[in-house]
Amino acid sequence: MPRETNIVKIVGEDSYAKLRSTKCLLVGAGGIGSELLKDMILMDFGEIHIVDLDTIDLSNLNRQFLFRQRDIKQPKSTTAVKAVQLFNNSKLVPYQGNIMDANSFPIHWFGEFDLIFNALDNLAARRYVNKISQFLHVPLLESGTSGFDGYIQPIIPGKTECFDCTTKETPKTFPVCTIRSTPSQPIHCIVWAKNFLFNQLFASEPSPEDEVDTKDWGTTDEEEIKRIKQETNELHELQKIIVDQEESRIPDILDKLFIQDINKLLLIENLWKTREKPTPLTKTQLKTIDLADKKLDLNTVWSIEDQLSRFVSITVKLMKRIRTEKVIEFDKDDQDTLEFVATAANIRSNIFNIPLKSVFDIKQIAGNIIPAIATTNAIIAGLSSLVSLRVLNLLKYAPTESPLDLNMAFTAKASNLSQDRYISNPNLAAPNCKCAVCMKVTRGVLSINDMNITLGELIGKLREKYGFPEDISLLDSSEQRLLVDYDFEDLLDRSLKDVNLRNGSVILLTDEEGNEETGMVRKPLELYINVTDDNSIKLTLPPIDVEWIKQISEEDKKMEDEKAKQEEVNEEIIDGEIVILDEEEEEIPKGKKRKLDDEITSENHEMKKSKIDETDDGQIILD
Amino acid sequence: MSANHATNGTVKLSEEEIALYDRQIRLWGLEAQTNMRSAKVLLINLGSIGTEITKNIVLSGIGHLNILDNHIVTEEDLGCQFLLGKEDVGKNRLDATKTRIQEFNPRVNLSFDKANIEDMDASYFKKFDLVIGTELNTREAITLNTMTRQLNIPLYLAGSNGLFAYIFVDLIQFDAEDEKLRSIKATEPGKISQNREIISIDERISEDDDKIVYERIKTRNLYKPFQNMLDDATLNGKLTHRQLKRVSNALPLTLASFLSSFDDSSKETFETQTRNMCLKLGLPIETISTQYTEQFIRQRNVEFAPVAAVIGGALAQDVINILGKKQSPLNNFIIFDGITLEMRIFEL
Ligand SMILES: [Zn+2]
């Protein structure tokens, strides 16, 4: 019997034919991506395009089963495609590139796909593909894993929650004074060693103090802020020792960081009223450092003597490197930079009575490594593949009548969220009406060949097609500049080209007038400009409806603007803080957590209810 | 067999192994990783689920995996097994896949037996620390389970019918240690379900933050042989009426399929078996949809790659957990419904 016997039994002949003519985009060929590629091929999807920016690393091999030791440093996308040739039965097209690069991957390219599978490891790219799927109205299958935890979420643009409908966990931040003056946990010392000390000594060109006063210092103590600023200036002195290759002065670095600076801190008595005082290193400790390079186990916690000894030898090593490299960036896989940060952090921890950590553990914190295993990725990829059948409505016996019938899924037992569900599978939710990505505006793609048409002509066409009134405004939202509104009509006669609109520009059309009788306005319309070479297409407007929405009163608007401004300010503050999470690896967006909580609550609710029911004389009451 | 491999679990992991297994050691620790290396596991049948299990546990760095299989590769296999290519049709399945499996991880000891399960006796099975049987018929499953019980070896069974699949677990008796954050209400010892009992709780204060307290909970899991589960399976008293109504049809259909052989059962006898199973389980018969039943019959014994990925992933992870002595094991019957993605754990 032929190869497709099994799948035909499951989906039927018609749906099988549809699968063979379906064109999918797979974004990511890493942990989930390798698994997805295998499943998608065995499901006989006609065509699969695979995009990944990364190359293969040794630590991938415990789960990314298509890659071998010999493939290390090779691109993931092309290597994966070579590896699946044995069992491949689909047209495969690999790309090594960044999915957010609009030159390599323009929107019309995304538009060729029937379905997009996200198998990404970072928030920015997830957000980007989500937005693209909203412009194109292409279904997106979002997924993620972290250790034993994983989730999948189908996104049907306009019909179900999008990736940004729920807030996502933002990088963890710490106030400056916790890091610089009053650490109380290992992570505070690691952040100090990595983001402050290492950067000042190795990663920056010698430069004057550039700290801004708007920072979240986490304190109002003027004396302390002054001290922090002064300390930074003094570090430039230490940087000179490094740059000038003065090996004999390495003890001066230790003296400054771990004796003098600590003593200065001790003088600020306010700090130690409620805290345990730090104990600086002693001069004797510095004099007795053993300079023989000992073999040390990276998985155990070293003694303070070993920390000091390794700090010195690794600093010598980095000094030699800086001669040729000029600037050295921290990289968790660069053993020298890792051990410098680890020993510096541990010496500081020791001073502040904080437990020391092994290099292995510090690597995880400093490098923001998220655990990853083959099994969770296999399960999540399997679920994502299965749900695609219903997203494409290929199971005739389980027709998808509404997108809200579709299920998302997440690991429940392994994530300690349930004892009797291995996977939880709630129905999809409708979009969050406050979501700026999918609900505040209508989105679509405008394809155009002739960029010589004027803004006025374009606006006329948009008005006609989508029913906008006379009074509108038009914004180039990719660059936040006003193109047209009621008292700025200077550009109406200029061509799109003249006003610097180009392929990839995004314009926002807003109804400034509304309908007086109903008090309704057209929902703002955001269009992605896709410039095509096809001169049979002069201008194609997307076939979408722009709904009427309730007009926002001037007061509400003011309040919203205020809020937006406030948020901007907050963001700036966050930028000024020390941020440690770099999103290097796979992570689970926070939004899922809310769903998990909901699920648990509803299960508890169910339990409670059943208890009440049963107390009625042991009889179970029907509802 | 790869040369110079230390199967002795007390041997420390090399720096290279630690680098290779980095992302999982960070999850389950060095000790669990070392424990896994001393384990000798038997996998029966290398179909779609068997292939997924093999991939997962070989990648994870288990000590020794032995595969028992005697199938000849068919064209159909190509549509659901990623270790096979066109040129393998007609070959013995183990011959075709041996080197490909070793490539997943050269550090794992592999051995292969081209033989049928019915020809194997206790002297064969007793060599293993754990047995996984995939795609076995009911008679094979019961015989195997009788043997693993006699030899005191943990057993996992798994199989699929198209979009529907199951895992059965018989670890006989297993004490598991879990660690979790202490909530407002401290955990107390005692029975938590029919097959599980908390026997001790230790507290551990986080070394990074003394306000964070963890509970180390020891849970005793008791299991039943496959035959007993089939005989006694019921949900009465375990679920409320509301919950019973929501149980996926896949549960009674799968259990009924164990009672009627694939070859000789007509649609009618299968439907009768399903109805009887519903009565036994305490499930309302009206919840059984004819469409589900039809599809189940149509998809009987059909292998499907994404379903195998889910089942093979869940089973392999549980094997890794018990070998590494981390996390509470599955207990004892898991049903996956590939239409709704529901995957529930039933204590039957
Ligand atoms: Zn949204």
TrEMBL record, chain A:
Binding site for ATP: 28-33, 52, 60-63, 76, 121-126
InterPro entries on file: ThiF/MoeB/HesA, ThiF_NAD_FAD-bd, Ub-E1_IAD_1, Ub_act_enz_dom_a_sf, Uba2, Ubiquitin-activating_enz, UBQ-activ_enz_E1_Cys_AS
Superkingdom assignment: Eukaryota
Domain THIF-type NAD/FAD binding fold: 8-435
GO cellular component term of the entry, any: SUMO activating enzyme complex
Catalytic residues identified in the record: 177 (glycyl thioester intermediate)
Compositional bias of kind Basic and acidic residues: 595-613
Entry's Gene Ontology BP terms: protein sumoylation
Positions of Zn(2+) binding: 162, 165, 435, 438
Annotated SUPFAM superfamilies: Activating enzymes of the ubiquitin-like proteins
Assembly behavior: Heterodimer.
Family per record: Belongs to the ubiquitin-activating E1 family.
Protein name per the record: Ubiquitin-activating enzyme E1-like
TrEMBL record, chain B:
Record Gene3D superfamilies: NAD(P)-binding Rossmann-like Domain (3.40.50.720)
Molecular functions (GO terms): SUMO activating enzyme activity
Cellular-component GO terms for this entry: cytosol; SUMO activating enzyme complex
One Gene Ontology biological process: protein sumoylation
CDD domains (alphabetical): Aos1_SUMO (cd01492)
Superkingdom of the source species: Eukaryota
THIF-type NAD/FAD binding fold domain segment(s): 21-347
Name of a matching Pfam family: ThiF
Database matches in InterPro entries: ThiF/MoeB/HesA, ThiF_NAD_FAD-bd, Ubiquitin-activating_enz
Protein name: THIF-type NAD/FAD binding fold domain-containing protein
Organism, scientific name: Naumovozyma castellii (Yeast)
